[in-house]
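thought: user wants a sequence for this fold. calling inverse folding tool.
action: design(structure=
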């Protein structure tokens, strides 16, 4: 069978069916990823911190409501937004994001298809990049004419298999070396055991 569930079988995964510990792992990870990348280049002060958190929150809001996004990703992102009262505690506990990301992949691999694992990784990477791009003077969130920041993200998400086959694409050039390093560590942690084994061959 290989990793993940049968690609031909529809996945009816709901995070509500997980244990409270596993659900907490998944819904806290998007926020912890944002905090972890933000702290990687924590030199802009409170204004930059606010920009970065707004960037994260707006992306999560779009992900949780966009119909083209897989339901399990919408559930995770909505769970993150619904847990705002825990964000301060999560921020104080965001030092081990790579380890928690690896645990999340290990949790989801027997449940989800290979394609959906790649989408999960793609979304966490996008959150990390949006936060990094919000740092400093770069304004990622100038609204377009429709008032939405969604833009081409849905197209990319639907095409994620094509985008993520092979090596993970590089981080954009408009972020700091420390943020790039943090994102690359995250991507390594998000590889499945099979992908890690293929990298060593």
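)
observation: tool returned 201 residues.
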């Amino acid at each position: 069978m290989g990793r993940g569930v049968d690609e031909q079988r529809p996945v009816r995964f709901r995070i509500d069916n997980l244990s409270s510990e596993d659900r907490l792992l998944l819904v806290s990870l998007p926020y912890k990823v944002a905090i972890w990348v933000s702290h990687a280049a924590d030199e802009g002060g409170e204004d930059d911190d606010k920009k970065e958190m707004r960037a994260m929150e707006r992306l999560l809001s779009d992900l949780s409501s966009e119909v083209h996004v897989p339901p399990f990703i919408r559930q995770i992102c909505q769970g993150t937004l619904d847990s705002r009262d825990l964000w301060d505690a999560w921020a104080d506990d965001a030092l081990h994001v790579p380890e928690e990301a690896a645990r999340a992949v290990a949790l989801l691999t027997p449940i989800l298809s290979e394609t959906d694992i790649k989408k999960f990784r793609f979304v966490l990477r996008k959150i990390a990049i949006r936060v990094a791009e919000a740092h400093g003077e770069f304004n990622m969130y100038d609204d377009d004419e429709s008032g939405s920041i969604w833009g081409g993200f849905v197209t990319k998400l639907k095409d994620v298999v094509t985008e993520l086959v092979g090596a993970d694409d590089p981080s954009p050039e408009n972020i700091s070396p420390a943020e790039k390093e943090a994102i690359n560590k995250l991507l390594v942690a998000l590889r499945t055991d099979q992908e890690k084994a293929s990298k060593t061959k």
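thought: summarizing for user.
answer: Here is the designed sequence. Confidence is low (pLDDT under 50) at residues 1-10, 137-152, 155-170.
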